[in-house]
Amino acid sequence: MMVTGLGPIPSARAIDTSLTSYLNNQYYNQLAPDGDFINVNAMSVADIQGFLAGKGSYLAVAPSSQLGDGAAGRSAAQIIYDAAKGLYDAAVGCSGSICINSTTGTVSPKAILITLQKEQSLVTNGAPSQRDLDCAMGYEGGNGCTWMFENRPQWKGFSNQVGWAAWNLRLHYERSVRQIEPYYMGKVVTVTDYDGARSVYLSNHTTAALMRYTPHTYYGNWNFWKLGVEWFGFGTGGSFGGGVNDLSSASGRMYASGKYTVKSYKQTDARVYFGDTIVAELGSGSWEYQFDPGIGTNTYNFTYKLADGSTLGVKSITIEKRKNGDINGDGGVNILDLSLIGGAWGYKTKDDDWMNLNPEVDNEVNLLDISIFANSWEG
């Protein structure tokens, strides 16, 4: 089958899509072009079906009975197409003054396919579990989607997940258009991961929407950017030139191993201080500082000052640090924590989920996590 409408061949760009390149070149400042993100006409049902088949996806052959109570006999390709067009209940609705429906559509089928892959690997998975399908877009997917299953069952199932998530992504996009706090185009926000905090310049509405949906620079948004480039030839984004004092605050979490790095922006006529230590001198437009937070929850302040000593503002980072393996936060590494790992075995987790003990490798609870946990065992 010939698949049409899938965009240019990204290999011609010769873009290094590694995590290192993504972070060092600050591609997180523009995750995808706005036009690509909301192009609801980018793929036909046949295009989507051909793409899924070409990737060996189970979604290409999945019976409607496995695609949730909203599937209504439709194939996965039809559900994705209909969600992009705003053609069924889970993909439409209003939040305040913002209404999303068949007139506006939601987001591109390409954006939906990328999200299905980054959340549950469903585009390339030939044999997903029913739970993978039920948690397809990671919509309210904390703790392996357990919270959503127990508290918002109307969001469970492939068709509901695709519809609600597509609606939510377009809602975040429209919130950026209307400059609704805290994520909108032109702002600098601080997002946190297990190893540090990075300031992100929301250079377009798409980046604002994606950072609001998944507020991390690590796996989630890296994979969205990476797949957009490799699968569909989306634009590559780029770094922010600085010139602004980033005073946004954030909270992060980490385990005891490793240090925490803060990367941010400042105006060139300002210094940055951490206590009495000068972190960044006059002349630079960005700054970086690495330190070892204490166990517990503590707030660390970075102060921006002009050459004459006058204060321009303060950036605060609140960090909760636990012992390696202390999943429930009670100060020990014991059978209670092991029970939590067992209950989430094999599940995909959020970037900052406490059950993910090896976030630098993957975002799944598996043998690597158990190995780290065993080395930290206190009994």
Describe the structure in your own words.
- With 379 residues, the chain is an alpha+beta fold.
- The chain has three domains: 15-177, no CATH class; 250-322, Immunoglobulin-like (Sandwich); 335-376, no CATH class.
- The protein is 30% helix and 18% strand.
- The protein is built from twelve helices and eleven strands.
- The strands form three sheets. The chain has a five-stranded mixed sheet with strand order 5-11-10-7-8, with no helix packed on it. A four-stranded mixed sheet has the order 3-4-6-9, with no helix packed on it.
- β3 and β4 form a beta hairpin.
- The longest helix has 20 residues, at 158-177.
- It starts with 18 loop residues before the first helix and ends with a helix.
- The model is unreliable at 1-12 (pLDDT under 50).
Task: Write a compact overview of the structure shown.
This protein is of the alpha+beta class and 379 residues long.
Q: How are the SSEs ordered, and which strands pair?
A:
Layout: H1 19-24, H2 34-37, H3 45-54, H4 76-85, E1 93-95, E2 98-100, H5 109-120, H6 130-134, H7 146-151, H8 158-177, E3 188-193, E4 196-201, H9 205-213, H10 219-232, E5 250-255, E6 260-265, E7 270-274, E8 277-280, E9 286-291, E10 296-306, E11 311-322, H11 335-343, H12 367-376
Parallel strand pairs: 4-6, 5-11
Antiparallel strand pairs: 1-2, 3-4, 6-9, 7-8, 7-10, 10-11
Helix pairs in contact: 3-4, 4-8, 5-10, 8-9
| Spatial gap, N to C terminus | 58 Å
What gyration radius follows from the Cα positions, in whole Å? Answer: 22 Å
How many individual β-strands?
11
Q: What low-confidence regions span 5 or more consecutive residues with pLDDT below 50?
A: 1-12
Shape label = globular
Overall SS class: alpha+beta
Residue-averaged pLDDT: 91
Q: What is the share of helical residues?
A: 25-40%
**If strands are numbered along the chain, what order do they take across the biggest sheet?**
5-11-10-7-8
Largest sheet at a glance? 5 strands, mixed
